[in-house]
């Protein structure tokens, strides 16, 4: 059976590793407000653990139903907690009481109870692509109870010998577990930024700002870092009881700890050395080492403590001050990775790069017509409400086609009804366009006939199945799809899920070359679990393609994910003119018209 693009596992959706971190401070101090993501993650993880334990299926289904309802509701979490989750569909009295307790104590009792019955290492198996509760239970029964143990068992033949697995499955699991082990110490960009910005809020008054991987917009973050102007005492006074295990880290000046299980580092310096601190905390390892070497060659000593010459600390309150002393150009934070080393001076300065506010159309979104959680008017309302805060003055729809049956894909009859509703909303004055995310079938053809595609304002073509085709067939499949005269843009081109699975095997350059020749737009999927096309590939192709930054939002709140796609685009040096959804609604329609006319 072909693998379907069903998304991340429940433990991954919780925002951490396969285990669960409550964020309760050791001192018992008041916790930060619980997030919707944490609530949903706790419910889904509980359901999966109950499945592993073989307990009553109705209990697991109850937790999953409650999770879906919480994802769909737009009521602020604080209001839900204050109301005891009253009125939320599928959240019964018992679950509501446990969620309320979680919000106030940091402990979700059903999850704590289920987790206590499972070996700690077994929780990590949820992070392996292709392993669900039933297979995890089979592995556990066979004595395989950790990621490392699974790797060994896949290598020595024990997994292949298990009923329901076999040699091919064992090989696939080995590849997936090695990917998981390599990724286990990193977080999604969204998590890293959330934690860094939370820290910055707690450190208000110390000029706190994100640093490290999150500042550079990397797709994953090892440690959530911030820099501040102040002392260790200043930092400790604000973070005591909020950051777990807060303690000095060598080399100083650095404090480390954890927030909701995520490693954090807070670097501090006096105002006169802040520029050097930001430089040392604001680039890749290679970038920092290169700066130190260049400073040393010029007779300076550069570190996070400041810039010194002959033992004297020089006043350098900003990064520009440090580089002026060294006689070096200021390299923007977006361009401080090895891939930029040879090209950064040819890329636009930050002031010219695309921003969230530049985006006008949110082109790839989902509604209740497929697997979204909100109606089309509700999605439009949120897009208009967000406005410049998330980019967007109009909503472009993108509900799934019929092959995506697992995602409530639309039959031809439902597609036609969907288009009729959109036309009615347009006549009522709503800023909405009719698009669909149409599956690319195994042979590269599209899931709807051309006559139905022509009723849409634009078409997003995406792969959601047959990920295991060999490189040659997968490449031919996508080349055919991007060359179709009615395909406006290619959705999530490589199919990767960040920290979850690599993309499928294909000759990406051949696919992108075909897209360039056909004038097909290539998506930068802003969902933090995708960020596909990768910024490194976008950087290589920036002068040959047109791109779209799309959220792939399935709930109204997901429309705010544009910030992550913009981070990818900025790392690739993209300006507004290279991103098609910086066009207004009528301009975008004219673009599609020109695209179709050019293809005859």
From TrEMBL:
Residues 33-337 form the DNA-directed DNA polymerase X domain. Keywords: Exonuclease, Hydrolase, Nuclease, Nucleotidyltransferase, Transferase. The keyword Flavoprotein does not apply. InterPro entries: DNA-dir_DNA_pol_X, DNA_pol_lamdba_lyase_dom_sf, DNA_Pol_thumb_sf, HHH_MUS81, NT_sf, PHP_dom, PHP_phosphatase, Pol/His_phosphatase_N. Residues 1-29 are annotated as: Disordered. Residues 361-442 form the Polymerase/histidinol phosphatase N-terminal domain. It comes from the Bacteria. GO terms for molecular function: exonuclease activity. It holds the Pfam family PHP. This is DNA polymerase/3'-5' exonuclease PolX. It comes from Deinococcus carri. The gene is polX.
């Amino acid at each position: 059976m072909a693998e379907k693009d069903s998304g991340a596992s429940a433990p991954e959706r919780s925002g951490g590793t396969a285990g669960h971190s409550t964020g309760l401070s050791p001192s018992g101090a008041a916790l930060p407000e619980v997030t919707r993501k944490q609530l949903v993650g706790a419910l889904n993880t509980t359901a999966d653990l109950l499945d592993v334990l073989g307990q009553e299926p109705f209990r697991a289904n109850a937790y999953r139903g409650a999770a879906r309802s919480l994802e769909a509701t737009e009521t602020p979490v604080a209001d839900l907690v204050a109301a005891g989750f009253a009125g939320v569909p599928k959240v019964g009295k018992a679950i509501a009481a446990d969620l309320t307790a979680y919000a106030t104590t940091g402990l979700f009792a059903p999850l704590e109870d289920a987790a206590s019955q499972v070996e700690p290492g077994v929780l990590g198996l949820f992070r392996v692509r292709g392993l669900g509760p039933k297979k995890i239970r089979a592995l556990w029964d066979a004595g395989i109870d950790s990621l490392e143990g699974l790797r060994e068992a896949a290598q020595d033949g024990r997994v292949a010998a298990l009923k329901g697995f076999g040699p091919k499955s064992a090989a696939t699991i080995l590849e997936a577990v090695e990917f998981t082990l390599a990724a286990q110490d990193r977080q999604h960009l969204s998590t890293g930024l959330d934690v860094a910005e939370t820290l910055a809020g707690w450190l208000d008054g110390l000029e706190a700002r994100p640093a490290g991987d999150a500042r550079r917009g990397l797709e994953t973050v090892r440690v959530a870092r911030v820099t501040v102007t102040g002392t260790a005492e200043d930092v400790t006074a604000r973070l005591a009881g909020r950051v777990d295990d807060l303690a000095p880290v060598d080399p100083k000046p650095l404090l480390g700890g954890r927030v909701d299980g995520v490693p954090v580092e807070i670097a501090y310096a006096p105002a006169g050395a802040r520029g050097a601190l930001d430089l040392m905390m604001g680039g890749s390892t290679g970038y920092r080492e290169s700066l130190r070497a260049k400073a040393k060659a010029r007779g300076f000593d550069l570190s996070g403590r400041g810039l010194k010459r002959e033992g004297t600390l020089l006043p350098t309150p900003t990064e520009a001050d440090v580089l002026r002393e060294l006689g070096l150009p200021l390299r923007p934070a977006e361009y401080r990775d090895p891939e930029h080393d040879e090209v950064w001076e040819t890329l636009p300065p930050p002031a010219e790069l695309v921003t969230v506010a530049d985006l006008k159309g949110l082109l790839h979104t989902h509604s209740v017509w497929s697997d979204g959680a909100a109606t089309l008017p509700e999605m439009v309302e949120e897009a208009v409400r967000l406005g410049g805060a998330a980019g967007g003055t109009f909503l472009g729809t993108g509900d799934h086609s019929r092959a995506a049956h697992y995602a409530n894909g639309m039959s031809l009859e439902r597609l036609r009804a969907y288009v009729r509703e959109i036309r009615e909303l347009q006549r009522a004055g709503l800023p909405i366009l009719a698009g669909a995310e149409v599956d690319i079938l195994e042979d590269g053809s599209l899931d709807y006939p051309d006559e139905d595609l022509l009723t849409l304002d634009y078409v997003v073509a995406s792969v959601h199945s047959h990920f295991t085709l060999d490189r040659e067939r997968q490449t031919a499949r996508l080349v055919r799809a991007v060359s179709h005269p009615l395909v406006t843009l290619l959705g999530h081109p490589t199919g990767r899920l960040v920290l979850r699975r690599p993309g499928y095997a294909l000759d990406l350059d051949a696919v992108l070359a075909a897209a360039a020749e056909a004038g097909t737009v290539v998506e930068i999927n802003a969902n933090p679990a995708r960020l596909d096309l990768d910024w490194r590939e976008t950087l290589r192709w920036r002068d040959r393609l047109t791109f779209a930054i799309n959220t792939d939002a399935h709930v109204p709140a997901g429309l705010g994910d544009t910030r992550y796609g913009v981070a990818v685009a900025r790392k690739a040096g993209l300006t507004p003119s290279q991103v098609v959804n910086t066009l207004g609604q009528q301009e975008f329609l004219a673009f599609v018209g020109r695209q179709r006319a050019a293809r005859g």
